[in-house]
């Protein structure tokens, strides 16, 4: 079978052998695995038929003038210790504060890390299998990935400011495979923001993978801001593994794309590990957002808390399927899950599919999904202050989603995200 | 210059009539108080004037400085100069108090005009100090987790920031202890002046010890049945509302 999507230039001979063989294995897995259908448990309610990965070819590098424009347009955080700008899976700009190297932090584009830190990358590269339905797309990613961010924070290093990476997608019919690895060793602390953006309006595909490894007592705060253009198909899988007393916060701000699927797995492998899974989604026109999560409690006294909020306009559709699993020995664990949908149009559709699999006896666990409209008394209160109904709607909607952003503890990041959210809601 | 309520009849949409020919004129620079027993229509009156969608006016007029506000949406009424301090202020999760008040101020500017942030915060902090509201309340979500007293102070803060020509204070004393009541009353009194007419709605005379009205009205059965000076509030306090009801019944049968 010819597979245009996989007809990529052969992996450079300078790349390590393990990486090349991983890619080859992934390519054959991609070809073998069946395309998911809506009949699959993890694809219920999903318009998976709406796209065919074979419609896309690996993204070609962008012209120099365009990459210069994209670098100029990469305005994210007000302060950061370092940044990468990728355009069509190619590094076009980089910055790293001297304190990173001084502290032994590795902040490299994946293509370089594979050469200079081959063993280290091998230990963490795609070590978690997809368990939420996207095995085929994860294989596609593994076969096609060539660039991304590799961030390694040594034991005890607590970074004073966040890092960020921009992943631009340009052209038409192109596919990118953004990759992010964060390794936070014992008692370290780090914040990273990934921005996913399009250079123009065109039908493209993004198939990304993140792997976050949170060591004992370490803190990882990771944000992904999805601002693809309205024709992009996006599939993203995230796996977070948290060791003893470690904590992770994963926040997704989902704003763009035509069809956007994100899977998030949090594995709490060490005792007293904690993860917060947060997402705020603005869905309008015919946008579809499909989110699948698993809070996997594998050790005692672990804690997970999920809050996903969706606002839906027009004919938009969202699906959140959240599973909580507590292993038999994971006693005294707490697992919470809350999904809230705010419906602003009679034609919008919000699906919530909560699931529990509690195998331990002594656990605290709650889950709930609600779907509602703007509260009439809130609207009247705002109007009674002179705020026109349309502005009041926008402000209440902003507040609804901002409650998710408020949970993110880093001020500079939160303020930038709030600004991004306000800009997204401006047209409503 | 006044807020005139003329022969106002209103009901719950498709339901029971609540105001039955209410007449009232609140002149700029004066404070009127409305007292009345539970269920007399006091709180509903404030919502009807502000344009709450649960109620409909069946006849009569509400004129703000000579112009009818009844065709206007609630937000247009507010921008025309009306303010309602709620008995139960609404919580708005995720929207900070500062941004909320700012949006209300911004709504009063011409298209394309931007609020000066430095001036705005300067003014906001000054008014908050008057009302003894801690600065941390600018970043907190509107009324969320506020105590009863904090909510009422926040209403008076909004009134100070929006500078209405006519303000209706609906049961501003309810749920307040005496210390909170004094702070809220001081905030209201600080805004008292020639540029604003106020209507203070209350069940108890207590509030009127701190905000002295020029005129006191009694509302029973959707109509004003008595109008007099501040002494009327004291009379009601000592005799109760039954006295008015009995009086009304007598004059009706006479």
Descriptive overview:
In chain A, a hairpin with a 2-residue loop joins β2 and β3. The mean pLDDT of chain A is 95. Chain A is built from 9 helices and 21 strands. In chain A, α1 (17-32) packs antiparallel against α6, α4 packs across α5 and α7 (376-383) packs across α8 (389-405). Chain A has helices at residues 17-32, 64-72, 98-102, 110-116, 118-124, 135-144, 376-383, 389-405, 411-425, and strands at residues 57-58, 82-87, 90-96, 106-109, 148-153, 163-169, 174-176, 179-184, 189-198, 205-214, 219-227, 233-242, 247-254, 259-268, 274-283, 288-297, 303-312, 317-326, 333-343, 349-358, 363-372. By secondary structure, chain A is α/β, with parallel strands linked by helices. Chain A has one domain. Chain B has helices at residues 42-50, 74-79, 97-106, 117-130, 148-162, 178-191, 206-210, 231-239, 242-253; strands at residues 2-12, 17-27, 31-35, 55-64, 67-68, 82-85, 92-96, 141-142, 166-170, 197-202, 215-220, 223-228. Chain B has a 6-stranded mixed beta sheet with strand order 6-9-10-3-11-12, with helices on both faces. Chain B is α/β, with parallel strands linked by helices. Chain B is globular and about 65 Å long. Chain B contains 9 helices and 12 strands. In chain B, α5 packs parallel to α6 (178-191). Chain B has one domain (2-93, 165-253): P-loop containing nucleotide triphosphate hydrolases (Rossmann fold, 3-Layer(aba) Sandwich), CATH 3.40.50.300. Helix content of chain B is 37%, strand content 29%. The chains are: A alpha/beta (428), B alpha/beta (254). Chain A binds chain B through residues 375-378, 380-389, 391-392, 395-396, 398-403, 406, and chain B through 50-53, 73-75, 77-79, 83-84, 86, 89-95, 99-101, 103-104, 107-108, 141, 158, 162.
